[in-house]
Design goal:
heterodimer; A: about 160 residues; mainly beta; Jelly Rolls; B: mainly beta; eight-stranded antiparallel beta sheet; four-stranded antiparallel beta sheet; 1 helix; 12 strands; about 0% helix; about 45% strand
Chain lengths: ~160, ~200
């Protein structure tokens, strides 16, 4: 029997940083899961993701479903992985991102995100990177801010059968 | 740890003799989550099944299906039945909550989908590019507990010709232990070649 999940890397910031990037990701796994508990140095900030250093927003699109305790809705965006599950200076948000078939070279990369911040709201997101290249690096960042010390991001890989 | 000497050793001295060939080795501890089966379609298929779960999944508490799949249906999306033990009776229920990029909706599909858990809008189809697949993570909870109905939950979505993200719940109203799982394309089309289905067991 093959163990399902393998911890690949965990980074906890000891000082502020613009992003956390996992690079040289092996293609040996089937799916990736990224778990983030982010903090910002200032204010409320949305989290974003880039693959293989592709910083062109037009190559990403996502559909978002959100509820904030009094209302709910759906919208679209580019590389967002949260909506009301955004991060603050208090490290009270959690986001789990499922990146499916990340090393397949015949598929665009579809990912699913669930993000929560109890004081704000809850989100479900489906996104796609319009590229068939195998993902070898993942950049986690805040759309309009800086990651604070204490931010932790972990990356897991699921084995192939 | 005390070293292990082969039985052919002529100088056991004060060493302990063990009958087990495993003596001295680190104990094997199975992991908490294991890959039980995986299917990657090389040609289209109307159904995908995982069977003999009474042996294949023995010792696991929950199951998870992780999939990247599309349909051959000539439409902008499709879906499938999730069926247990080949039961095609009206023994299922399901609800969903959906975002389409501009609005949210929720509905009960029980009246229109009783031949399995109807996994609503879980597949891309012909109008999306051939390299665009929908992602789904399906949790199947306590499928071997004969005191409970089997419940499911799904997180699924895609962007393509249309955009969809859904959270879905499902129920098989039977206390039998699950021995097989069938995914059956809802509209009579097929899962397209390249679709991938992975079954994970969780302790």
């Amino acid at each position: 029997m093959t163990t399902a999940w393998v911890p690949l890397a965990t980074t906890t910031l000891s000082s502020s940083a613009s992003d956390i990037t996992f690079s040289s990701i092996s293609g040996a796994y089937r799916d990736l899961i990224l778990v983030a508990t982010g903090k910002s140095t200032s204010g409320t900030q949305d989290q974003g993701i880039n693959f293989n250093a592709d910083g062109t927003a037009g190559n990403y699109d996502c559909v978002i479903m959100w509820g904030n305790g009094s209302t709910y809705g759906s919208t679209t965006s580019t590389w967002l992985i949260d909506y009301y599950g955004s991060v603050t200076t208090d490290n009270n948000a959690a986001t789990i991102l499922q990146i499916m078939d990340y090393s397949a070279t015949d598929k665009h990369k579809t990912y699913l995100s669930r993000s929560n911040r109890a004081a704000s709201g809850v989100d479900a997101i489906a996104g796609r990177w319009s590229n068939t290249a195998a993902i070898t690096s993942i950049k986690y960042f805040l759309i309009g801010g800086t990651l604070a010390a204490g931010t932790t991001v972990s990356l897991y890989g699921s084995n192939r059968s | 740890m005390t070293p292990v000497f082969p039985l052919s050793s002529s100088s056991f001295g004060d060493y302990q003799r063990y009958l087990s060939a495993l003596a001295g080795n680190t104990a094997f501890e199975p992991s908490d989550e294991d890959i039980l089966a995986e299917e990657i379609l090389t040609s289209s298929a109307a159904e995908v099944s995982f069977s003999s779960l009474n042996t294949l999944a023995a010792g696991y508490q929950h199951l998870q299906i992780r999939m990247m799949a599309r349909s051959t249906r000539s439409a902008d999306n499709s879906e499938f039945y999730l069926r247990f033990n080949s039961d095609t009776g009206a023994n299922y229920a399901q609800h969903y909550m959906r975002g389409n990029g501009s609005a949210m909706e929720s509905a009960n599909l029980q009246t229109s989908g009783t031949q399995g858990v109807r996994c609503y809008q879980t597949l891309t189809a012909a109008t999306s590019g051939s390299d665009i697949y929908a992602a789904s993570v399906i949790d199947i909870l306590d499928p071997f507990d004969t005191n409970k109905y089997t419940t499911t939950r799904i997180l699924t979505g895609f962007t393509g010709a249309i955009d969809r993200v859904l959270i879905e719940s499902g129920l098989w109203m039977d206390t039998d232990a699950v021995t097989s799982i069938t995914l059956d394309e809802y509209y009579g089309s097929s899962f397209a070649a390249g679709s991938r289905f992975t079954l994970i067991g969780m302790k």
